[in-house]
Amino acid sequence: MSQPVLYEGKIPRIGMDPGASNEGSVRRVMVVVTALTPNQPASDEQLIARFRAGDRTSLELLFHRYRDTAYRVAYRFLSNESDALDAVQEGFIKALNHLDGFEHRSSFKTWLLRIVSNASLDLGRSRGRRETVSIESVDWQNQDAALTDGYDPILDVERTDLRQALDKALGELSDGQRRAFVLHVDGGLSYREVADVMKISIGTVMSRLFYARQKLKGLLANRIHI
Amino acid sequence: MNHELPPISDWPGVLAGFADGELDSDTRRQLADWLIAHPEALAEMQDQESLSRGNDALWQAVAPPLPTAGQWSGVFNAIVDETMPRPMPARQRKNSGRLVAMLASATMMLAGLVAWKLPPTPVPTIVPVEVVVNTLTPEPLDVFPVATDDDVELIQLPEAAARLVVVGRHPMADVPLLLALATDVQLLNYGPDESGNLPDIEDTKGPDVSMLWAPSNKP
What we know:
heterodimer; A: mainly alpha; Rna Polymerase Sigma Factor, Chain: A; 2% strand; B: mainly alpha; 4% strand; elongated; disordered C terminus
């Protein structure tokens, strides 16, 4: 999906031309806009600057840019659609209301996902992780074929079962392993960015991801080919 | 070839980094060589790859259920409420509007008195502002003259400027178009349109609020 394009520019002067004839009381105004970067989406920094100046459109663009990623991360921690949306909402509000604390050493995405993941963990603790499915209750028939070479579309119910099984398995990881795994896989953050978010070294990120996958494989290997 | 790397049991994270493509080229080459010499570690390597973010089939199959447009809209509105400057309360706006209306009435009465004493003047006509597009600058700029189609009468269109003219709806269809920040604009004057309607300027507090307006129905 293509990103919406936002133009900005300078408008010289609009309104009555002091040197013009006074005949008639109205001048229709045409506006000349200089497009600084045509066909190029505004950067996060530009959108944030305009948002801080009160521009709602910039907020909307920023929201559209990161809402899906933020939601995937939150969902993976909370296993519940409504809770995940709450965490996304809280994360955006906190991130935007505390932009003064946003050090531009990292990207806005990294900053946002740090807050969303914290909000998700807090929400999860306060509400209790919703155990909506038992790993034993999942119907694993045909799941093997779904994840082997030549992937075929699978029914919604099978996808739901598989997703719930992964959510359940993720719940078995330590907080640190799960956070590193979710931020990297669902948040799309690099090891460096995960390290920044979690304030740990890249070596620790690597190690946590390794052990997270080993555990996940142990929890899921008898059921699906991974 | 470096076979002196520690065993994988002491060096597990490197396998994760390899599976995720996060290693620099030197380390990657070293590990590839090491794996050739230690094929027993290949199974662990494959485990890491199968649960890496590159496994599209897996992550498509376990993607969370998507929120509806209505749910997203609710979330966005809540974010706007909590982060954007609030508009002036309705009562205050009403008072401002009343003041403007009183001033407008007084102005019209005065204008009426003056008109009664003076000979009739021609009906006001609209004189469009001329937009000059300079295509001869050393570094030509992309320029968008923006107007509604009935605001524009093309009298002459030099070929060099043809690509610069936009008439009617702006080219990004349904995407709002931010023209400039308030600091980029100097409003010199405004007045009633040909029907005597005053512009209805939205009274908001932010420094870069919308400055576009539509004629009010109230004269």
